[in-house]
Design goal:
The protein has helices at about 5-20, 25-30, 55-65, 130-135; strands at about 35-40, 70-80, 85-95, 105-115, 120-125. By secondary structure, it is of the alpha+beta class.
Length: about 140
């Protein structure tokens, strides 16, 4: 079992590397069999469906880092359940959609599941309508 302090420190490091846009560095900090999904409607697929396998996970993380600048987002709090090996991170700040240049303030929560000291599942809770409209995944009248 990984200690509470170590889990928190790794999540902070993941955010630091991700926030500078380092795809390879981010992937190196995550478990080889890690999965990712954003909680939301299936219209937001593939992000709202759990990525399976190294290639799909790599693609999802690469797309997110390439499209979304989180360098002005701060971690408001990190909550660790050491027994369950789960970390919740509350983040807030200004997000920029890189392709469109649109910026907006938001907040979101990431849930990291750990095994053997590495994240193996990441679930993100965010304003999916804001994400979908900004990235033009869906059109809202």
């Amino acid at each position: 079992m990984t200690a509470k302090h170590d889990l928190k420190k790794l999540v902070e490091e993941i955010y630091t590397v991700r926030d500078r846009g380092d795809i390879e560095g981010t992937l190196a900090l995550l478990g080889e069999d890690c999965t990712f999904r954003i909680v939301g409607n299936t219209r937001l697929a593939p992000f709202s469906t759990e990525s399976g396998g190294p290639l799909a996970f790599r693609q999802a993380i690469s797309q997110l880092i390439t499209a979304w600048d989180l360098s002005n987002v701060r971690t408001a709090g990190i909550y660790v359940d050491e027994d369950a090996q789960v970390v919740f991170a509350h983040r807030d700040g200004e997000v920029r959609h890189i392709p469109s240049g649109v910026t907006f303030r938001t907040e979101f929560v990431d849930k990291f599941h750990f095994r053997d000291g590495k994240p193996v599942k990441i679930v993100e809770f965010l304003d999916t309508l804001q994400m979908a409209e900004t990235s033009q995944m869906i059109q809202v009248a």
